[in-house]
What we know:
The complex is a heterodimer. By secondary structure, chain A is α+β, with helices and mostly antiparallel strands. Helix content of chain A is about 15%, strand content about 25%. Chain A has helices at about 25-35, 40-45; strands at about 1-5, 20, 55-60, 65, 80-85, 85-90. A 5-stranded mixed sheet of chain A has the order 2-1-5-3-4, covered by helices on one side. Chain B is α/β, with parallel strands linked by helices. In chain B, strand 5 (about 80-90), helix 3 (about 95-100) and strand 6 (about 110-115) form a beta-alpha-beta unit. The two termini of chain B are about 20 Å apart. The chains are: A alpha+beta, B alpha/beta. The interface of A and B includes residues 86 and 91 of A.
Amino acid sequence: xxxxxxxxxLRKFAQNNSTFEAAGKTVKEAVADLINAxxxxxxxxxxxxxxxxxxxxxxxxxxxxxxxxxxxxxxxADTVISxxxxxxxxxI
Amino acid sequence: xxxxLQIAKEAVDVSYDDxxxxxxxxxxxxxxxxENGEDRFISKAxxxxxxxxxxxxxxxxxxxxxxxxxxxxALANDLTLLGVYHSHPNHPAIASVHDHAKAMPYFSYxxxxxxxxxxxxxxxxxxxxxxxKMFEEPVLIVRKLKIEG
Lengths: 92, 149
């Protein structure tokens, strides 16, 4: 099963787990498995249309899925999926 | 509302040095440490490139790739990524509307104010549970961990 690294800010929505062993053959299926197990995290990753939120990036290994097959990117038992929130700010 | 945030002096010094060197641009970096109940202790600060395109005098961004590596580093080193620091050149260490708009839950957002090239203040902020505002988290700079059992 692929391993999903849950970003620290969202771990409280996944029973404070830092990782999740996800079933599925694609990123889409793996993320769905995570949300199925921890429903509270879903709204922070997907929008109302079930698309990945604009401020969330997903990596497979060190590759952004936007440079691969996006949510249809295949995953295997050795795959590490990272869910990455945007971090930004500024003084004004 | 939030218990005081303990930050190791060496981590504070890293953020101060980065803030001064980056002036008049904003700098940013990761904050690692540990938690025990409501006690939060930052032991390590690591600068990261401000990847904001355009005006960095009042904006910072951390690249997704760097963030991904930071979370992996925390897991590999039995640490927790507790937040980020950034500087406010010639602005107070107060979370701005933009800081609030971009804030993630759980994280400590440490802000270093740099006035005319010199560190003026340090404050930390956290997003309230309902996301409605940034609440100041008292900062305690320590040389030794003080966690009550």
